[in-house]
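Researcher: I'd like a candidate sequence for this fold, 117 residues long. If you have to choose between options at a position, lean toward the conservative one.
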């Protein structure tokens, strides 16, 4: 069982920055990738950014150039640096870990990010 603990959400003005953290623990298998998804009210959950074990990254078009995903392997932690935040970035952000040969997905509890004008 993999536990994902998120932190770093909050309220920020448009144009500001936040950094989300997600610490993974309890995995007996290789973590193939970790990433961040978000879900705004009335919308489907969508991928924001992902980072594979090999170091490849994938970003939603809406956040390219503003967000950056990174990791600290020693701490089993992935970060999402969010800059130039926009009102439309307001959502609950969920950490995801894809684990093992079958690619099972684990989710964090979610952290609220609210961007105000």
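Model: Candidate sequence:
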């Amino acid at each position: 069982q993999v536990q994902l603990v998120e932190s770093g959400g909050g309220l920020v003005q448009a144009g500001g920055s936040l950094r989300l953290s997600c610490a993974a623990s309890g995995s007996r298998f290789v973590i193939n990738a970790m990433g961040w998804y978000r879900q705004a009210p009335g919308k489907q959950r969508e991928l924001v950014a992902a980072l594979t074990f090999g170091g490849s990254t994938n970003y939603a078009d809406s956040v390219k150039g503003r967000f950056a995903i990174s990791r600290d392997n020693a701490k089993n932690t992935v970060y999402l640096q969010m800059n130039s935040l926009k009102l439309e970035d307001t959502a609950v952000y969920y950490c995801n870990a894809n684990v093992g040969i079958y690619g099972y997905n684990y989710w964090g509890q979610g952290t609220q990010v609210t961007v105000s004008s």
